[in-house]
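Forum: Protein Structure Q&A
Topic: Joint prediction for protein chains with partners

I've read a bunch of threads here and the consensus seems to be that you should model interacting components together rather than docking separate models afterwards. I'd like to see that in practice. Below is the full input, 475 residues plus whatever partners are listed. Could one of the regulars post the assembled result?
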Amino acid sequence: MERNEIIARYERGTHLIGRAVTLVTLALLVGAPFMIGAYLGAMPDIGAAARSFLAVGLVWLVSSVVEFLVYTPMLGSGGSYLAFITGNLINMKIPCAINARDLAGVKAGTKENEIVSTLSIAVSSLVTIVVLAAGVLLLQPLQPILQSPSLQPAFDQVVPALFGAMAYKYYRRNLRLAVWPLAMMSLVFILLPALQSQTSILILPGGALAILLAWLRYRKEKTA
Amino acid sequence: MTIMQQLSSPTMYLICGGIIAFVAVVCVVFAVRAWRAGKAIGMDTRVLKRVVTSSASFSVLPAVAILLGVIALSGSLGIPWPWLRLSVIGALHYETQVAQSAAEQMGISLSGSSMTAEAFSTIALLMSVCIMWGMVLNLFLNKKYTARLARPLDKVGERSFGDQAMTAMFIGLVSVYLGSYLGQWISGAGRFSFAGSLLTLLTALCAALAMMGLTWIGEKRRIGWLEPFSLALAMLIGMAGAVLFHTMGVK
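Posted by a regular:
Agreed with the consensus. Here's the joint model:
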């Protein structure tokens, strides 16, 4: 079978399975509170849920649109279906997929990247499911260790540790590209400290600035 | 049976565990299809194995951190629901905020002592509805969006802008977080007070230095197996650094 035919068949299957499982997962997730409500003998208060949605949900709606627009090109179709079903995108799935892509030496936008991203996110999700299931089983005996005050700073700092390590990995080969976004974002957070609790809002402008600089460099290299 | 006992009852484990099992099967299906497609288009099996190894090793530490989220929420929502939320679709930073907001609308605080059956089912519904939009967009737009992004492969040896754009996007993302850590220290307790939290910045720096050391060792000593583990190891060293800085009184 030819490469193009294999890819076309894989893509058709990915969209078919991706849409079907997304639909089923959506039904299960929205249906679960009603199922639980029936078990507990008290259905959800739709009015209170709607008021809460207006208060906090709209932010997450906008955030979801941004995440979809930004992350889907990074992950490809299969990786995207899977990442949005399994969650924990920013603190786990995206860095994991990008790291796997670099290790495999594949280019963004290629079918190899799509395959590597999908494989990476699937493995990452399975590991999370296994760790959490084991953790829940061992919750009682593990609780004193995991909640020990001396270890608390370590687990509170997982995301900074992740981004510190990733920063070296990406900055070392692209230092000139990284200087301006880092300087601009630092300045924004220093001058507007209130934004520190809403870091995700600045991901899109930060990314857009870096892409603009990369584009200017790319144009310069092409015309040189 | 109290509400908290009901929330951690076998029925709740069955409902939540069933959904998690379904998603686990989905992951296996996607992994097997990706592996087979990779081999069919001629990708090296060793490369695919490295992807699996690095992704698995990378995910363990963040998964333990997510487990702490389950523990944190279990006091007010029982164990099975936070287990479901953080295994599937949820995000560590999101769940508490949404649960708190729903609890406020129900006129209670997010704690086991004030939880009621109606409050719980409402909180559970809001937690599901607020974060489902990424899936909804994927359902309707993924095919069109990815088809639009697809473009012919570049000439051999030429680095495409798409590739550079993705790297740039990630540099932007990392810069936002590092910028926020710097901002927390400099202006977190008042603009230019230099009295805010320094722990996040030092942890990030510690992890970056660890990554630098591990990369240097891997490249100089030509230790190929180190590369897939270097990110997880650097994170671990960064987290150990956080404990050390904390004991030294850094806030």
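The mean pLDDT of chain A is 88.
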